[in-house]
Amino acid sequence: MRESAAERHDRLLGLVRERGSARVSDLAGLLGVSPVTVRRDVEELAGRGLLDRVHGSVSWPRERGGPAAAPAGGSGGVVLGMLAPSATYYFAEVVRGAHEAAARAGARLVLRISDYRPEEDQARTEGLLAAGAEGLLVAPGWRRPGDPAAYGDWIASLPVPTVLLERRPPAGSALDGIDRVCSDHRHGVLLAVRHLRELGHGAPLLMARDDSPTALAVRSGYAQALGVLGLRAPREVIDSVPAEVSPDRFEAAVQALRAAVASGAATAALVHNDVDAIQVAQRLAELGVRVPRDLALVAYDDEVAALADTPLTAVAPPKREVGRQAAGLLLERLGQARGGDGPEPRRHLALLPQLRVRASCGAAAV
How do beta strands 57-59 and 21-23 pair? Predict the structure, then answer.
């Protein structure tokens, strides 16, 4: 399968973090891509504050921790380990929030990336423990419904306080009994569907991926939202894939959406995620379907939705606050352990997304 830009970004970040700094030309050889591609990637990552760039080289920002960085709390500071499936797109903000909370507490955050390979999560987490992590923030690289059962049992037996991030394990499982902090994606979908209904639309069509816990939660939340609002889906969910991974399947998804609009079956759509939504809107325009005149469009994630030609209304999960709250909860658990106090009840924190209204749904921005 062709490597996505997000996966390449994570490999690039991993190489720079390991080395502290690297020349762009060297990174091109290590990644197996052209220097032009690396320069474009570096420009994007530097713009998001994930890398520092100087005269043909890049370095890991000192404030984010790494080989060239001193621990935020000095040599005696608490060390928090964080396992994330990615350091770009959605999880960049989660990582940033966790780092901010750790830094405020004088703690050091050490990050490892799984590249959405759940079979490698345990080994990477053991590496965090070997690096001195006294507590763990864990966002497993699960992608499919069966992944928690296949690659999750080990988390419940970790020897240090652990908080799950943006992951909801099956009810009744061993992982269901540990601390977690998540975005309430079902609530986010309900906000979008209710907003479109209030604008006079029937049930929106859902176009969504199925390759991440967020995508699966959006799908589940869509069915729940329709039930709560007494609506019926205009047709089955349209399966989406990244255009760069499978152009043919992406085109088929867009054509299915176009056909639904042309037949009058749907006047609104919710698309997960932002990148797909922007590409969908671009392709629909080429096919004569204009947003929002012919189709009200809402994106899910709000990473880059505001940058579309027609700024996209989007559901915005509280990603940075998830990181902050999770790190804060972990630090609290570590404080309790050191103080010898008895254990408090475990917590499942569900933070509510917001709906950011822009031009793509045909309503006035708020």
Answer: antiparallel
